[in-house]
Amino acid sequence: MQAAMDITAKYCRKEMEAYGLCVASNPSTWQQKCHELKMNVAQCTSSHPVIQKIRQECSNEFVEFERCLREHQGQPVSCSPHVASFLGCAETVDLSGVATNPVSQPS
């Protein structure tokens, strides 16, 4: 997962920072108030091959984490076990052969 977070931070820093600030500023209503920012992060990261592979191979863990967040909107810290499960899965994904620095398309 650290690899995914590093890549997300590298390629989607602006979106991640805006979403994180929104969540921190709206502890009980972040799910509604930050939805558009969450979608911006998702859109930014959806095209990166490393993140795509992690999402594909750890989709069950990620779905459970998101479900937990929806059910515990006022206490996202209660989803820590789900985060740990997702992180554990992501660390086991074989990234050999996956482009970690996609080549930009010429303009």
UniProtKB/TrEMBL annotation:
PROSITE patterns xref list: CHCH
Record's GO cellular component terms: mitochondrial intermembrane space
InterPro entries listed in its UniProt record: CHCH_domain-containing_protein, CX9C
Biological process, per Gene Ontology: cellular respiration
Pfam family, one: CX9C
Domain called IMS import disulfide relay-system CHCH-CHCH-like Cx9C: residue spans: 5-49
Entry protein name: Coiled-coil-helix-coiled-coil-helix domain containing 5
Organism of derivation: Pundamilia nyererei
Lineage, highest ranks first: Eukaryota, Metazoa, Chordata, Craniata, Vertebrata
